Amino acid sequence: MTDSKSDLLINGYGSFSGGEYQVVRINGLGKVKGDIHCVQFTTNGDSLIEGNVQSESLRVTGSSTVEGKLKTRETKVNGQLTTEAQMDTKDISINGSAVIKGKLSADQADIRGAITVEEDLEAEAVSIKGVFNIKGLLNAGKVHIELLGNAKAKEIGGEKIVVKKSGIALNKLLKSFFADKSLSVDVIEGDEIELEYTRAKIVRGKNVKIGPGCKVDLVEYQDSYDADSEAEVKEEKQV
Amino acid sequence: MDNDLISKKELLEETGISYGQLYRWKRKNLIPEEWFIRKSTYTGQETFFPREKILTRVNKIKDLKDELSLDEIALMFSPQLTEVVLTKAEIQEHQIVSDMSLDLHQSVNGKTDVFSLESLFYLFILDKFLQSGEMSLDEGKHLFHFLKSNYSRFQDKNAELFFIRSMGAAAFFLASETRDICFEEHVKVVSRILLVDELEKLKSKIQKTRKEDQYD
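Above: the input entities. Below: the structure tokens describing the complete assembly.
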């Protein structure tokens, strides 16, 4: 990027065409038609991009919708982010909600709130505190989930997979209310697995710990296995 | 059970890798998505792999992973033509393609001392045919042009190259994800090759020469 590229600033309400910029900043309500290539993309308010976005950083306070592919190094969202296609990023942190209608690849993903991914979610480390629906495979080196409600994934695979009920719900009054809130998943496979409040057909791993609130049809473990007295496991076998 | 396939469980047992490693390699694109075959069994959904391919791949990754980073290994297996450039001297010294193919390249593209991976890949393929005596030099030129103008559209599609003869006349075509194919009786399939396999061979050959050069 050279300094000769200009900035795109929308203050208030505006509609502009895409292109190459240094900084794109939308304060208010903005629409961009076409692909954007920039260093910094900031939305304070509401933005709609009718094209692909490639930017070093993407910051959203409010809401932003990208109708094409999104590629960034750093993504910070306070509010809502929607992408209509795949998203590729290094660090993503979301406070609020995100809907990714393609595959999401990242290095580090930190989500507090809600996330929906229409295809696979791949990252080296994923931490989700809240609810989610991953319609494909959640594949990560480290998966750390703190459940705040119902969550769903088709499959989860990785090195270390931890699913917990969030501390907030530990309150006794909430306990009965929470009992039917859980993570539903077909298959979980990993090296180290610790689960709470998870309904799964199959859990396969080296060291497997099944905690309270779990309903698992089949556990296959290699080295160690442990199940809480409040867990329901239909069948377990060492392989 | 289908003998050509191996279940994920068997694969782990046979190779001694863990679930974590397998998922990691998938994330890093060391194992192509199409090799994960989902099938229903009495225990529900299970994942299978093409036996030969996955065993070869896993063993190769195990061999390489101490010397190369996972990203470097991924590059080697990728169908993409990466930005490698070799000099004519390097190619000759390590006999990556024959002098005959280099001459052919010169007659088509003029004199050059540096070769992109792309050109080298096309030469590598036709070199195979030339050396086996299955192809004439003119047909080689034809194939070079054909690949040059068409491979890029097929590179991510698991493309196969067909080299056929009908009443002696040679023809080439590219097909992606070939399932079944049938020819009339006059057609002789001289050769069909999976391009991604050839590219992998070429890339590991180049990798090897680079390694040797480091220690020279």
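Note for the figure: The mean pLDDT of chain B is 86.
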